[in-house]
Amino acid sequence: MSATFTKSMARNVFYGGGVFFFLLFIALTFDTMQALPKRDNSQNITPAVAHGKKLWEVNNCIGCHTLLGEGAYFAPELGNVYKRRGPDFIKAWIKGQPTNVPGRRQMPQFNLSDADIDDVIAFLKYASEINTNKWPPNIEG
Amino acid sequence: MDAQSVKIGSADIAVTARADFQKNHQKDLPGDFALWIFIFAEMLVFGVLFVAYAFTRANNVALFNESQLTLSRTSGAINTLVLITSSYFVVRGVDAIKRGLSSQCAHWLTGALLLGGVFISIKIVEFHAKFAAGITMSSNAFYMFYLSLTFFHLMHVLMGMVILASIIVKARRGGYSAQNHTGVETGASFWHMVDFLWIILFPLIYIIR
Amino acid sequence: MKYKSQAVAKLYFIAAIGLFLGQILFGLIMGLQYVVGDFLFPAIPFNVARMVHTNLLIVWLLFGFMGASYYLIPEESETELFSPKLAVITFWVFLAAGALTILGYLLVPYASLAKWTGNDLLNTMGREFLEQPLPTKVGIVAVALSWLFNITMTMLKGRKTAISLVLSLGMLGLAGFFLFSFYDPVNLVKDKYYWWWVVHLWVEGVWELILGAMLAFVLIKVTGVDREVVEKWLYVIITMTLVTGIIGTGHHYYWIGAPAYWQWWGSIFSALEPIPFFMMTVFAFNMVNKRRREHPNKAAVLWALGTSVMAFLGAGLWGFLHTLAPINYYAHGTQLTAAHGHLAFFGAYALVVLTMISYAMPILRGRAANPERAQIMEMWSFWLMTVSMFFITLFLTGAGIVQIWLQRISSTPMSFMAVQDQLSIFYWAREGAGVVFLIGLLLYISSFFVKGESHAFE
């Protein structure tokens, strides 16, 4: 056969391959969305959880912590902190910041009301009950 | 476990790709060599999936055997015959164009294209029955592999049909000749790969227990 | 330069380098906060420094991509840019928006910034890398569309090459996938699922098209190898990128609540993700070996080869290291991820922008290549930055492995903060390597001011 790997051929393979795998990705995404309700704990999303998530976001918690392993690796994983520490500890901890221990990593004081902190805790409780395929490996996150 | 093989495989592909650009032609493989790079890559992916299936099955033999009984062997067997016949049609199509017979080539390939359509129709009926029974990729490990592999393969059949269709259109316009028919051979190679993968996939998932 | 309108690229390149310097300074602040926890607290808490560090990175790379395309597209299309004026306006809009955003991060508590910028209307803020206030996000879309419009109109009136086609497809994807940053559902799993459509499909998808196009352009210019050959390679490489990278997104779906089958799909396809990077390395060295001329800009050749190697190491190898689900189970969200992130972003994207700047900037300043002495400084800066970044990666990898062991594998797992105390030696070493990186960057910047006899055009 002749050497005919033309550029237009290469281009067609590129378009074909790109479209093919994007469609496959869409199909898998569709299946994932169907499967999520059994896994994502969305039945427990309450207004408190929604407000807690918003507080989580507008205080940029992800800028230091990780949540289900994603975030900044500078401070502890919080996806399972509800199970690790419990609500009372979390509340006291958030209120007690910063520790001002010289040389230690410092968490800012966000001046949240008691109700706000309860909502943050509700969000962390919701997050801790998502089916994450048994991640993290142990309670330390 | 197959990490190592994947890694080595990837290097091989890149090296072959380089060899291709240096030599720029290949005697022993029909069709375009660039497509063979992708065919090798595809075989690699399917190969890894098949090995993964075998390993997972080894750990869940009872579950796999039990779930396997729910599959329709008849539709699988019919589809095997359909694809083998279509491959034969494609062979005849390539043979025709080698003798310069464009419209005969187009006819054979159209036959293959229609058989591709039959394959997909049967598959859709089969999938529909499974979905109606509430079976999804998350049901269990067997169904995960069954649906992943057959759906991934189904998309390849669709892709092959798009390629065949574009070749048919070009052949009808007289775009190929006895001297210049790399495009037909390339498309044929892809179609045979799709057929070949099914011939492995069918016994592996539907029959072997 | 061949076309007057290419001159707008200069603005973009200067801004890119300036912001790059800012990124590194904040990186050093964070690096120090890893070991001296209360450094600059409460003036610049870690989360603020990190936001500035990562956002500056994204913005300077975008400036680099835009500058590169305003330089490259007229030359590829063999016509003047559709509207240089629009390109200049876009530049100032983007720079102003970027500067205001960074100042907002630094001067205002994040929660107040969110309140003032309409986060209550449509909440999009507070997610990693997508911290920008709503107006900034809208601005990014507007800037990307203006960029895309200008480039497309230029291409339409001129020659259409594979390089410009791939570049514009990459830009289209960049603009398109960014739209997912406006989707922030309460359902955390969906939030994370589509968050990756911006982050992963950018850096392991469409950005690689831009990377490939830029590298191909520079290689054609400095080696004189036939365009047909280069463009065929380009297509094959980016095909493999999309084939592996799109489903490879699955390697982020193992532990965030998505179905378990992603462990298979993600592991298999992302294990193949090094292929396109390896091909890129082979390609770059092949082209340089087969060069038909000796381009006087030797520094640009070094940057181009460096890009191909470091992209393979950072994105390919370090990515592969922890991409398989059984390994990722232990490695997910540790310093190993940070190690990969640093080398991948530097090796693939920072270096390709610097390659483009190294090639184009002398021409924009009216000469084929910089004076020898400037080039030597530039090459020194390449080695300083590349080697120090490699060491940053090695130290973080060491930290990551120890962290995984103490916190996740050991039969008596230690708490996160207790483990961090154990890692301080790695963090100190990383900070040291970071200082060397800064020296390399300063050397790089000073190479622009070296006077001497420069290479005229042939």
Written overview of the protein:
- The complex is a heterotrimer of chains A (141), B (209) and C (458).
- Chain A has helices at residues 7-35, 47-58, 81-85, 87-95, 114-128; strands spanning 66-67, 70-71.
- Chain A has 141 residues and is mostly helical.
- The N and C termini of chain A lie far apart (59 Å).
- Chain B has one domain (3-207): Four Helix Bundle (Hemerythrin (Met), subunit A).
- In chain B, 82% of the residues lie in helices and 0% in strands.
- The two termini of chain B are 23 Å apart.
- Chain C has a domain at 1-160: Four Helix Bundle (Hemerythrin (Met), subunit A).
- Chain C is built from 16 helices and no strands.
- Chain C is globular and about 70 Å long.
- The interface between B and C is medium-sized, with 24 and 24 residues.
For this entry, give a set of tags:
heterotrimer; A: 141 residues; mainly alpha; Cytochrome Bc1 Complex, Chain D, domain 2; two-stranded antiparallel ribbon; 5 helices; 3% strand; elongated; C: 458 residues; Four Helix Bundle (Hemerythrin (Met), subunit A)
What kind of assembly state do the chains in view correspond to? heterotrimer
CATH architectural type of the domain at 1-160 in chain C:
Up-down Bundle
Order of helices and strands of chain A: HHEEHHH
Count of helical regions of chain C: 16
Instruction: Quickly count the domains of chain A.
Output: 2
CATH topology of the domain at 1-160 in chain C: Four Helix Bundle (Hemerythrin (Met), subunit A)
Strand content of chain C: under 5%
Q: What's the name of the CATH homologous superfamily of the largest domain in chain A?
A: Cytochrome c-like domain
* Main sheet attributes: strand count, strand direction, barrel closure of chain C: none
Mean pLDDT of chain A: 95
CATH architecture of the largest domain in chain A: Orthogonal Bundle
The CATH class of the domain at 1-160 in chain C is Mainly Alpha
Give the strand order, joined by hyphens, for the main sheet of chain A. 1-2
SSE order of chain C, one letter for each helix or strand: HHHHHHHHHHHHHHHH
Count of beta strands of chain A:
2
**Structural class of the helix and strand makeup of chain A?**
mainly alpha
- Most strands sheet of chain A: 2 strands, antiparallel
**Helix-residue proportion of chain C:** over 70%
Distance between the termini of chain C: 12 Å
